[in-house]
């Protein structure tokens, strides 16, 4: 019974958790992606500069990342369910209070700070608990859950535009906040795994054989028990540090293509209606990439870190080729390649993080990884903008993003080499000692 409980279910009720996480991804990340539809409406209402209005989204993104370690530590202290429900209430409060629209500072505090904290408290534990419920099928489960962002973003664009036209931007915010209350329902469905408590109880009752250290069963139980405190010492582990540096460099690149894709299209003389279709293509192929890569990773043919290195290399190649486009068709093809490989990367990068640190430290690692990775997201777009200004061409931004991804792949290769070296060292230290008997198959008879 204990052995069974110590392993993730890899199915069963876990699929209910995956569907719940799918919904949470849509009600958080997809809302953040499509919030730009409110930009002009809010700017005109308060008669503010574009730079002033853009701080609403900037605050949301910043709090989303900065709140990740807090959300992870609360998951460790309490439960994923409690944190997700809290996140749903915070997200609703941010939108509902934003409905009042008192002034720009009020918008920063509500649809900026509260919404960002709500997204962080919902997104982080939803992704985390999926990894706890799955082991062999973890990559597939994470891919399906993350696909909720693409599926909802594809439909939220026209839906939010309709809400704004019918009820104004204030009414639309209130309705969207009400819809986000469904995050709480998803949180209720995220039932905590009972294995941790059972293992701790069984561990305390297990007696250690005298003079022989901990037994094999006892060691296996220890490895399965989740830590009850947030592990800040992960920053001292070389494997985690290498993966965090990869995350910074990747984030520097990922925010650049969506920023310069539309201006590049306009510079090529492509009509606005055709340019809008590029974003739809991006969402569809992203969705397909996540599901396909999750299915492939679930076959366990390729090591997840190797698969991630491969997808990062393919993304950088597509970004290097995208500036060569000179008409709509070629731009759509290269955009499709980028979107597909971006989806495959998102599908497996959380699974690789779990493989790097192990499940006992996963909650802590996810929070720290999100916090560290955010620096790349903040630095990347301004740096790319500076390069574009210096070159006088939007293509320069794509070259910068592709080159940064190539550099990030180098840290994945280094991480893989370090892991392989440690695995070889472990295998060498655990080789059984040779028997000193002249005939190993014979055993001395016991005297009756």
Automatic annotation (TrEMBL):
<keyword id="KW-0812">Transmembrane</keyword>
<feature type="transmembrane region" description="Helical">
    <location>
        <begin position="172"/>
        <end position="190"/>
    </location>
</feature>
<dbReference type="GO" id="GO:0016020">
    <property type="term" value="C:membrane"/>
</dbReference>
<dbReference type="InterPro" id="IPR011701">
    <property type="entry name" value="MFS"/>
</dbReference>
<feature type="domain" description="Major facilitator superfamily (MFS) profile">
    <location>
        <begin position="14"/>
        <end position="420"/>
    </location>
</feature>
<feature type="transmembrane region" description="Helical">
    <location>
        <begin position="140"/>
        <end position="160"/>
    </location>
</feature>
<keyword id="KW-0472">Membrane</keyword>
<feature type="transmembrane region" description="Helical">
    <location>
        <begin position="365"/>
        <end position="384"/>
    </location>
</feature>
<feature type="transmembrane region" description="Helical">
    <location>
        <begin position="55"/>
        <end position="76"/>
    </location>
</feature>
<feature type="transmembrane region" description="Helical">
    <location>
        <begin position="396"/>
        <end position="415"/>
    </location>
</feature>
<feature type="region of interest" description="Disordered">
    <location>
        <begin position="422"/>
        <end position="448"/>
    </location>
</feature>
<feature type="transmembrane region" description="Helical">
    <location>
        <begin position="83"/>
        <end position="106"/>
    </location>
</feature>
<dbReference type="InterPro" id="IPR020846">
    <property type="entry name" value="MFS_dom"/>
</dbReference>
<dbReference type="Pfam" id="PF07690">
    <property type="entry name" value="MFS_1"/>
</dbReference>
<feature type="transmembrane region" description="Helical">
    <location>
        <begin position="305"/>
        <end position="325"/>
    </location>
</feature>
<keyword id="KW-1133">Transmembrane helix</keyword>
<dbReference type="InterPro" id="IPR050327">
    <property type="entry name" value="Proton-linked_MCT"/>
</dbReference>
<feature type="transmembrane region" description="Helical">
    <location>
        <begin position="240"/>
        <end position="262"/>
    </location>
</feature>
<feature type="transmembrane region" description="Helical">
    <location>
        <begin position="331"/>
        <end position="353"/>
    </location>
</feature>
<feature type="transmembrane region" description="Helical">
    <location>
        <begin position="274"/>
        <end position="293"/>
    </location>
</feature>
<dbReference type="GO" id="GO:0008028">
    <property type="term" value="F:monocarboxylic acid transmembrane transporter activity"/>
</dbReference>
<feature type="transmembrane region" description="Helical">
    <location>
        <begin position="12"/>
        <end position="35"/>
    </location>
</feature>
<protein>
    <submittedName>
        <fullName>Monocarboxylate transporter 2</fullName>
    </submittedName>
</protein>
<feature type="transmembrane region" description="Helical">
    <location>
        <begin position="112"/>
        <end position="133"/>
    </location>
</feature>
<dbReference type="InterPro" id="IPR036259">
    <property type="entry name" value="MFS_trans_sf"/>
</dbReference>
